[in-house]
Amino acid sequence: MISVPQGKVAKQNLEQHIRGLYLDGNINPLQVEVGIKGIEDAIKAVRKDTEVRDTVLAEVSKYAEKTIDLKGAKVTKKNIGKYDFEVCGDPVYEDLVDRLNELKAEVKKREDFLKALPEKTSVVDNRTGEVCEIYPAVKLEQETIAIRFV
Questions:
Q1: How far is Cα 75 from Cα 60, in angstroms, rounded to an integer?
Q2: Phi, psi of 129 (to 5 degrees)
Q3: Domain ranges in the chain?
Q4: Of 146, 114, 19, nearest in space to 123 by CA
Q5: CB burial class (10 A; 0-12, 13-18, 19+) of residue 68?
Q6: Could you read off the pLDDT of 103-147 as tens digits, one per residue?
């Protein structure tokens, strides 16, 4: 059986242990990162697996309580859902969605314009007639890495 944290303190201890793997200098942090990425991908795949999900739901259905305590964790049965408005046939809703999509396209077009703007520029606000200065968008970047398993 896989040893997993049981309770909040154990989870925090595991987090600190993993953090230490990166920082203590005993292991190449890139090796740790690749290993953690592999574990993360595996966990995501297992959690998406319908057979696994069905097995977990079958197990939780054995409990009468809505929330159960299990080894330091509270497990709560929930129903999640969403509404499908596309089937309503409401012309007002459909018009609003169309307008929203048009606005999103206009915003995207304006963002592309602002990204490409080489320098500060004067423009006229069509609503007020006022001349205003606009500036190129500032690109916020953060260096990171991408890991792909081959």
A1: 8
A2: 80, 0
A3: 8-76, 85-134
A4: 114
A5: middle
A6: 999 999 999 999 999 999 999 999 999 999 999 999 999 999 999
Q: How far apart are CA 67 and CA 63, in angstroms?
A: 9
Report the alpha-carbon distance of residue 124 to residue 110 in Å, rounded.
Answer: 15
d(CA 11, CA 21): 15
pTM: 0.70
2-33 pLDDT, tens digit per residue, is: 667 678 888 899 999 999 999 999 999 999 99
* Owner of token pair 């968008």: 137
Distance CA 149, CA 41 (A): 10
